[in-house]
Amino acid sequence: MNQIAFIIPYFGKWPEWMDLYLYSCSRQKNIDFIFYTDCGIPDKIYSNTIFHQITFDSYCHNVSVKLSIDFNPKAAYKLCDLKVFYGIIHEDELRPYKWWGFGDIDLVYGDLSLLLSKHNLKQYDLLTTHVDRIAGHFTVIRKESKYTKLCLEIPNWKQLLCDEANHGIDENAFTRKAMSFKYKLIGRLYYHVIRRITSPDCKHYWFSLLEKSLRLLPSRIFMREYFTTFKPAVGQFCTYNPKTNEMYYPDNQINKITTKGGKIYLHFLELV
What we know:
With 272 residues, the chain is an alpha/beta fold. The chain is built from 9 helices and 11 strands. The chain is globular and about 50 Å long.
């Protein structure tokens, strides 16, 4: 039985790279990817890619019942604001799992065990792939931790969910609630001191340096910049080898890839 479940509601039409995405899911150990969709079941699925067919209206009704709100958005993109609430919305389906996660599907996975190692899963309650905010495209949370229901402490969370605007709750309001003292201190040191005397291009370097310098401060969350989203120049591209599950990057991006970072997954902007 896998210990981690990623919850992925998706409605409308599968993207053209869906087969590649699902294949990269199949290469991950200890993780199930659970989809709720009206897009139909893809031709090629795997033992750890689980599909529940449901209409958009029915899914929204279930959200309304679970959260005791009137959730009736016009656009499916509004579901992005639900990410940090998945642990509550899908608590029944998550009973067999110890961890739950949220993310995007405009990516391809490499080796997630480099981040979701036995040591990290024992040491932390929340793991994410940005150092300055909760990453909307990849975050994992221990089910029996305060972070599963921390979303209910967000000010005006019902109002935020019930209007049509997308608020990026995961990377904004939830980040402010979830950040430990250690990461709040890192942010203050950077934004109030270091940013005033250095180039913005060095932001992640300084965040990483501060994170390492303050590593002795206790924290139940793990935040580190893994540079999974690249912005290649015209004519540059990243490639993925499905046989080896390895990724290759433009030369000017190599210096951003830590020993483990760029190998975890690629959050792409365009697929060629």
